[in-house]
Design brief:
The chain has 352 residues and is of the alpha+beta class. The chain is built from 9 helices and 12 strands. The chain has 3 domains: 112 residues, PAS domain (Beta-Lactamase, 2-Layer Sandwich), CATH 3.30.450.20; 75 residues; 145 residues, Histidine kinase-like ATPase, C-terminal domain (Heat Shock Protein 90), CATH 3.30.565.10. The strands form 3 sheets. It has a 5-stranded antiparallel beta sheet, sandwiched between helices. The chain has a 5-stranded mixed beta sheet with strand order 7-9-10-12-11, with helices on one face. The protein is elongated and about 90 Å long. The structure holds adenosine-5'-triphosphate (ATP) and magnesium ion (MG).
């Protein structure tokens, strides 16, 4: 009958490159897929042979299949249904249209389109919103925290100098250390809110800057018998804020050292020219690596897997790199190591 017709009609307005079409019927109270086609299937790690003639439960985890069966049921009852799903890292939007004959559903035609990009953008916007909320909060409360903190620290020092019970001294030292830590967090927080304040772009010898950072981190690396090796073919000059760029490199080296086991591995820092306009710095460690499921959260403020981590290191790096109109990419394999690459333009729009 009109099987062929439906197929032709849908082919005209479904972007096959970015979607797929499918049909199902209800037989013996079970939904069976009768047709499926579209390039997106491959990207999801599926193929028509896996789906045609099969129920949802035969190719999806039970939990997903149950959720989808509820949408299928609604469509079978005559409703036009929209839902979002994700398989194999691809997000899609599906629309189910029941086909009626004499008022009875005979089949349902579904169309799906790839909305992965939109989802990623939505996440980025949420991230930005979160950051601007964090920023406003930071600016608002930092001052409030700093003032009482200054008095607390001053009085604690006075007590420490005049206390007669010597057993109290270690507690007072801990109090002072913790106050320093609060102060550090507040400062970092304020920086993330407004990295562009006090920024100072200067023509910089980047090899030298990298050497200085490696030198600064060497004692910490030595404690774990880790060597930091710098490789670069040429002398690279770059327009950047030296202090901020040092902070980026130190944060990244610190993470690599923390991720690397105490076993004499080395961390490689590679400085490369990328054409005439930009340069890249790559930091490669053979540390614990990062699980795929944690990737999306790395740049979230306060996301940390470390007992004493604040979770502000990477987000600070990202804010600084953004300010320098650069990019930061992370590749990692659990148990094998992590490669972090920063690409920076040699001169900035409006600041060259
Ligand atoms: N080189 C790396 N190898 C493995 N995991 C890493 C690496 N770099 C970052 N991570 C993961 O990303 C998380 C966030 O890093 P980030 O630097 O933002 O915070 P942190 O290191 O936990 O705390 P801190 O604020 O003290 O830097 C870490 O807790 C860790 O799980
Ligand atoms: Mg860190």
């Amino acid at each position: 009958m009109n099987d062929q017709k439906c197929k032709v009609d849908y082919e005209q307005f479904i972007p096959r490159e970015t979607g797929f079409i499918f049909k199902f019927e209800k037989k013996d109270n079970t939904f069976i897929h009768t047709f499926i086609e579209g390039k997106l299937l491959g990207k999801m790690g599926l193929c028509p042979e896996l789906i045609e003639g099969k129920t949802l439960f035969e190719f999806l985890p039970a939990e997903h299949a149950l959720r989808k069966a509820a949408f299928y049921e609604k469509a079978w009852n005559g409703e036009h249904v929209n839902y979002e799903g994700s398989i194999g890292g691809i997000h899609y939007l599906a629309v189910l249209n029941p086909v009626l004959q004499n008022g009875v559903t005979v089949e349902v035609i579904g169309t799906s389109i790839d909305i992965t990009k939109e989802k990623t953008r939505e996440k980025q916007v949420q991230q930005m919103e979160k950051l601007s909320v964090v920023g406003e909060l930071a600016a608002g409360i930092a001052h409030e925290i700093r003032n009482p903190l200054t008095s607390l620290k001053g009085f604690t020092k006075i007590i420490k100098e005049s206390v007669s019970d010597q057993t109290l001294l270690p507690y007072l030292d801990i109090m002072l250390d913790e106050m320093d830590r609060i102060n550090e967090i507040v400062n970092e927080f304020m920086f993330i809110a407004k990295p562009s304040e006090h920024v100072n772009f200067q023509q910089t010898n980047f090899n030298k800057l990298l050497q200085e950072c490696i030198h600064f981190m060497a004692p910490q690396a030595n404690l774990k018998s880790i060597e930091i090796e710098l490789n670069s073919d040429s002398e690279v000059f770059l327009n950047c804020d030296r202090k901020q760029m040092k902070q980026v490199l130190i944060n990244l080296l610190q993470n690599s050292i923390e991720a690397t086991e105490d076993n004499g591995h080395f961390i490689e820092v590679r400085l490369e020219e990328m054409g005439t306009d930009s340069v890249s710095v790559t930091i490669i460690d053979k540390g614990c690596g990062i699980e795929d499921s944690r990737f999306n959260r790395l740049f979230e403020p306060f996301y940390s897997t470390k007992e004493k981590g604040t979770g502000l290191g990477l987000i600070t790096c990202k804010r600084i790199i953004d300010l320098h109109q650069g990019r930061i990419d992370i590749k990692s394999k659990l148990g094998e190591g992590t490669t972090i690459r920063i690409c920076l333009p040699r001169s900035l729009d409006g600041k060259s």
